[in-house]
Structure formats: structure tokens, C-alpha cells
Specification:
The chain has three domains: 5-51, Helicase, Ruva Protein, domain 3, CATH 1.10.8; 58-109 and 156-194, Tetrahydropterin Synthase, Chain A, CATH 3.30.479.20; 115-155, no CATH class. It has eight helices and five strands. The protein has helices at residues 5-15, 19-28, 33-51, 82-85, 88-104, 116-130, 137-155, 170-181, and strands spanning 58-65, 71-79, 161-162, 165-169, 186-194. A three-stranded antiparallel β-sheet has the order 1-2-5. It has a two-stranded antiparallel ribbon with strand order 3-4. Helix 1 crosses helix 3 (33-51).
Length: 197
């Protein structure tokens, strides 16, 4: 199938990928738009994985103050170059992440940041909840792991569903931006303030 400039333009508009990448994806997908989108996403995610080890020492400190000025957040998001830090896409990402911190109340950045004593305390609570149930121990352990995963989704920023699109986790939102902007992006730290808390 012949790939037209209009097809390339439509795919570029939908994905934000480069012209050459769009043409190659359409050729690989034999002109199938949906397949081409999948191809671009897979290549973008693979490229993002390669970039994850690169240093990210530039970036921005974003903030969000909720209406009424009773809740606010500060967040440091790093990228590789000042050029990317000044782009609208990066600034929007930082603002959205600051809003996420206010709205979703994360306590830690990743599950690895959760102190071991907190994890053990959660597991103890789950074990007590399951104590009266007549289930084998290995099933109870799987249930505890599932509840712990849910705990991480509620308390760890990168594991949370994104407030603007709950079908996407925050870490996947960031990975998508790494693929789109072509640089490693890292949330370094954040803090949430609430009056009286």
C-alpha cells in the first residue's frame, strides 16, 4: 500500500512522533493506522527504557496551590537538558504531577521508599484480617501481596492512577513523556502541605 503524506501527517498529529518514524511505522503496518500507533508506542517505550539510565540533572521545581490555599505541593522533576525543561510538555507534566501530589496524597515516591517497618505493620493488619478465614497459608500470602500492591497504589506517587486519566499509572505517564521528549525524566522528590495537618 502506498503511504501518502496525509497518512503520515495524521499519524504524526495523533502520536507526536517524527515524520520519518511515522512513515516507517505506516510502511511496517501496511498502512494500518492503529497498527502503526502500536508500533510507534512500542518503539517509544523501548527507547524510554534505554534512556532510563542516563543522568537527569536539569529540570524544574513545580508547585500547585489548591483553591482556598489550604493545600499545596512542591515537586522536583528532573530531565537531561534545560532545553527540554523549558518545553510546554515538560512544564505541563510537572504541573500535573504537583496536582497529583495534592489530590492523591502520596506518602512515598516508590514502593522501595516505603520503610520496612511500615510494610510489616501493613502485613500484620492483613494477617489479622485473614486469621479467621479457612484458606491455605499460600492463598493468604497471595491475598496479602495483592493488598500490599493496592497499598502501594494508594501511597506511592509513581504507582498511583493518574488523576486526569485513571487508566494510566503515574510511572507510565512519565515513561510516555520520556518517549515523546527523548530524554530521561525523573521525579526526584516532593512534599505536600496541608493547613493544620
Amino acid at each position: 500500500m502506498a503511504i501518502t503524506a496525509a497518512m503520515v501527517k495524521e499519524l504524526r498529529t495523533a502520536t507526536g512522533a517524527g515524520v520519518l518514524d511515522c512513515r516507517k511505522a505506516l510502511e511496517e503496518a501496511n498502512g494500518d493506522f492503529d497498527k502503526a500507533v502500536v508500533i510507534l508506542r512500542e518503539k517509544g517505550l523501548a527507547a524510554a527504557a534505554k534512556k532510563a539510565s542516563r543522568e537527569a540533572n536539569e529540570g524544574l521545581i513545580g508547585h500547585y496551590v489548591h483553591m482556598g490555599a489550604k493545600v499545596a505541593s512542591l515537586i522536583e522533576v528532573n530531565c537531561e537538558t534545560d532545553f527540554v525543561a523549558r518545553t510546554d510538555e515538560f512544564q505541563t507534566l510537572v504541573h500535573d504531577l504537583a496536582m497529583q501530589v495534592v489530590a492523591a496524597r502520596p506518602r512515598w515516591l516508590t514502593p522501595e521508599d516505603v520503610p520496612a517497618e511500615v510494610i510489616e505493620a501493613e502485613k500484620d493488619i492483613y494477617r489479622k484480617q485473614l486469621a479467621d478465614e479457612k484458606k491455605p497459608d499460600h492463598i493468604k500470602e497471595r491475598i496479602i501481596e495483592g493488598r500490599l500492591k493496592k497499598f502501594y497504589e494508594e501511597t506511592c506517587l509513581l504507582e498511583q492512577p493518574f488523576i486526569k486519566d485513571p487508566s494510566v499509572k503515574v510511572k507510565d505517564l512519565i515513561t510516555g513523556q520520556i518517549a515523546k521528549l527523548g530524554e530521561n525524566i525523573r521525579v526526584r522528590r516532593f512534599v505536600r502541605f496541608e493547613v493544620g495537618a
